[in-house]
Amino acid sequence: MSYHSTATPSLAANLHGALSNVGSFFAALGRGIVANSSGARRLERIERLEAKSDAELAELGLRREDILHHVFKDLYYI
Predict the structure, then answer these.
(1) What is the pTM of this model?
(2) What top-level branch of life does the organism fall under (predicted)?
(3) Domain that holds residue 27
Protein backbone atom coordinates (compact mmCIF):
# COMPACT_ATOMS: atom_id res chain seq x y z
CA MET A 1 0.00 0.00 0.00
CA SER A 2 1.29 3.47 -0.75
CA TYR A 3 0.25 6.90 0.31
CA HIS A 4 0.21 9.97 -1.85
CA SER A 5 -0.18 13.50 -0.57
CA THR A 6 -1.45 16.36 -2.68
CA ALA A 7 -0.55 19.01 -0.11
CA THR A 8 1.74 21.75 -1.37
CA PRO A 9 4.07 23.85 0.76
CA SER A 10 2.71 27.20 1.76
CA LEU A 11 3.99 30.46 0.31
CA ALA A 12 5.61 31.26 3.65
CA ALA A 13 7.60 28.01 3.57
CA ASN A 14 8.73 28.68 -0.01
CA LEU A 15 9.69 32.27 0.86
CA HIS A 16 11.60 31.12 3.94
CA GLY A 17 13.54 28.60 1.85
CA ALA A 18 14.37 31.18 -0.81
CA LEU A 19 15.52 33.74 1.77
CA SER A 20 17.60 31.08 3.49
CA ASN A 21 19.35 30.30 0.19
CA VAL A 22 20.00 33.98 -0.49
CA GLY A 23 21.32 34.41 3.05
CA SER A 24 23.63 31.43 2.63
CA PHE A 25 24.97 32.89 -0.60
CA PHE A 26 25.81 36.23 1.01
CA ALA A 27 27.33 34.52 4.05
CA ALA A 28 29.62 32.50 1.77
CA LEU A 29 30.49 35.64 -0.18
CA GLY A 30 31.37 37.43 3.05
CA ARG A 31 33.59 34.57 4.21
CA GLY A 32 35.38 34.68 0.86
CA ILE A 33 35.98 38.42 1.11
CA VAL A 34 37.36 38.09 4.65
CA ALA A 35 39.65 35.23 3.63
CA ASN A 36 40.91 37.19 0.63
CA SER A 37 41.59 40.35 2.63
CA SER A 38 43.42 38.33 5.28
CA GLY A 39 45.61 36.77 2.60
CA ALA A 40 46.27 40.16 1.05
CA ARG A 41 47.37 41.56 4.43
CA ARG A 42 49.75 38.64 4.93
CA LEU A 43 51.18 39.12 1.44
CA GLU A 44 51.72 42.83 2.13
CA ARG A 45 53.46 41.97 5.40
CA ILE A 46 55.76 39.51 3.60
CA GLU A 47 56.60 42.15 0.99
CA ARG A 48 57.35 44.77 3.68
CA LEU A 49 59.64 42.37 5.53
CA GLU A 50 61.41 41.23 2.36
CA ALA A 51 62.09 44.87 1.46
CA LYS A 52 64.07 45.35 4.69
CA SER A 53 67.80 44.87 4.85
CA ASP A 54 69.33 41.93 6.68
CA ALA A 55 70.41 44.30 9.46
CA GLU A 56 66.85 45.59 9.90
CA LEU A 57 65.53 42.03 10.00
CA ALA A 58 68.17 41.13 12.60
CA GLU A 59 66.91 44.00 14.77
CA LEU A 60 63.48 42.38 14.61
CA GLY A 61 64.99 39.01 15.51
CA LEU A 62 64.30 37.55 12.06
CA ARG A 63 66.35 35.95 9.35
CA ARG A 64 65.33 36.35 5.72
CA GLU A 65 64.58 32.63 5.38
CA ASP A 66 62.22 32.78 8.40
CA ILE A 67 59.90 35.49 7.02
CA LEU A 68 57.24 33.10 5.71
CA HIS A 69 57.23 31.09 8.90
CA HIS A 70 56.95 34.29 10.95
CA VAL A 71 53.99 35.62 8.93
CA PHE A 72 52.08 32.31 8.87
CA LYS A 73 53.07 30.97 12.31
CA ASP A 74 49.51 31.27 13.62
CA LEU A 75 48.18 29.04 10.83
CA TYR A 76 50.85 26.37 10.46
CA TYR A 77 53.31 24.62 12.69
CA ILE A 78 56.48 24.08 10.69
Answers:
(1) 0.54
(2) Bacteria
(3) 12-72
